[in-house]
């Protein structure tokens, strides 16, 4: 997209770290480099690691100055985003071409520049990513499945309770109330027990998919006992493909049913599916200045739109052109004909 090669990785850990590996070719223009940095700025988060071959020499990273516009562009990118550049030694001949940027500064430690790896003519840079992994167990969410079968079981259970005896054995209003609620909760736990939310969702699949899931699990367990059995591997591959195909078909059918409910259902589906992000990306004004502040971006958009959405004064003496299109004027119909036509139209629910 920007004549550059970019690999973007997002570590889904507690801190949430964005990692960019970039190769910027020497012939990449100033405008394309600006677009590259603008793109990176628009998706940065508080923890970011950017490294790669930028091919922008002649930058003094100690004093943060440069005698060329590409170098100054990179320095401005660092200062505007509060990003620190670590490499201060030559990485290819007498130039610093390979750079490592981090935010915050202590995101990496113990970086080292060593001899080129394999056939590369660039020195190798190694460092330690300063992160700690904390595995957090997600608390399970419980709910009840109020299916027709479960509600029927609840009715049978509550009808078998001797409510008269329960009320007669307690004398105060509070005791009667507590006894009734305790029995109702017990009935609910017996007939419709709490289940984890993911189990409820899994149970919503049709019978065919449940059978495929059970077969896949059985083959998987057999494979764990006999991992070199090629026949089991083939069966597992086949059943996985079949299960994936059926789940995809089931989900597509559910989506179709949701969309066919009408306009509001379509809008709700789009919001949930795409999780629209209303954040304004970084903008470049006509003077080639990058705007990252939300107020500056809003002001720039307002000024741009105002040029094209101004009220225009029209000539009061303006007369529209006379249309020469032919019109049908010899059609005759009565109310009964219209009524019969409307009655025979198909009943389409929107």
Describe the structure concisely.
This protein has 350 residues and is α+β, with helices and mostly antiparallel strands. 44% of the residues lie in helices and 15% in strands.
Q: Which CATH architecture of the largest domain?
A: 4-Layer Sandwich
Shape: extended
Secondary-structure class: alpha+beta
- The domain tally reads 4
Radius of gyration computed on alpha carbons: 34 Å
Detail the poorly predicted runs. Answer: none
The succession of helices and strands, N to C, reads EEHEEEHEEEEEHHHEHHHHEEHH
Given the structure, what is the number of helices?
A: 11
Largest sheet: 5 strands, mixed
| Strand-residue proportion | 15-25%
For this structure, the CATH topology of the largest domain is: Deoxyribonuclease I, Chain A
Q: Supply the CATH superfamily name of the largest domain.
A: Endonuclease/exonuclease/phosphatase
**Overall residue-averaged pLDDT value:** 83
Residues in helix, %:
40-55%
The level-1 CATH class of the largest domain: Alpha Beta
What's the arrangement of strands in the largest beta sheet? 1-2-3-7-6
Organism: Meloidogyne enterolobii
Domain Endonuclease/exonuclease/phosphatase: 17-125
GO molecular function: catalytic activity
Protein name: Endonuclease/exonuclease/phosphatase domain-containing protein
């Amino acid at each position: 997209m920007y004549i550059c090669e970019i690999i973007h990785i997002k570590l889904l850990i507690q801190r949430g770290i964005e990692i960019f590996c970039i190769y910027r070719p020497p012939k990449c223009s100033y405008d394309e480099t600006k677009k590259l940095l603008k793109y990176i700025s628009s998706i940065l988060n508080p923890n970011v690691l950017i490294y790669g071959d930028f091919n922008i020499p002649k930058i003094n990273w100690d004093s943060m100055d440069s005698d060329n516009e590409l170098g100054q562009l990179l320095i401005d990118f660092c200062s505007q985003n509060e990003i620190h550049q670590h490499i201060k030694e030559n990485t290819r001949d007498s130039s610093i071409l390979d750079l490592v940027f981090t935010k915050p500064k202590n995101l990496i430690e113990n970086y080292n520049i060593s001899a080129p790896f394999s056939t590369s003519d660039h020195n190798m840079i190694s460092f330690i990513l300063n992160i700690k992994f904390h595995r957090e167990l997600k608390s399970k969410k419980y709910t009840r499945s109020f299916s027709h079968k479960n509600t029927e079981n609840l009715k049978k259970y509550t009808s078998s309770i001797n409510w008269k005896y329960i009320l007669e054995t307690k004398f105060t209003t509070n005791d009667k109330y507590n006894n009734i609620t305790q029995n109702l909760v017990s009935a609910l736990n017996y007939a419709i027990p709490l289940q984890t939310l993911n189990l409820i969702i899994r149970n919503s699949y049709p019978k065919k998919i449940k059978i495929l899931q059970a077969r896949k699990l059985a083959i998987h367990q057999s494979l764990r006992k006999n991992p070199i059995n090629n026949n089991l591997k083939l069966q597992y591959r086949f059943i996985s493909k079949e299960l994936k195909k059926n789940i995809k078909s089931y989900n597509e059918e559910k989506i179709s049913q949701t969309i066919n409910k009408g306009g509001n259902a379509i809008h709700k589906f789009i919001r949930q599916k795409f999780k629209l992000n209303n954040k304004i990306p970084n903008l470049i004004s006509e003077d080639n200045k990058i705007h990252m502040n939300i107020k500056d971006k809003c002001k720039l958009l307002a000024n741009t739109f105002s040029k094209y959405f101004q009220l225009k004064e029209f000539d009061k003496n303006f007369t529209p052109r006379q249309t020469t299109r032919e019109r049908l004027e010899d059609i005759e119909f009565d109310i009964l004909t219209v009524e019969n036509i409307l009655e025979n139209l198909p009943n389409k629910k929107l």
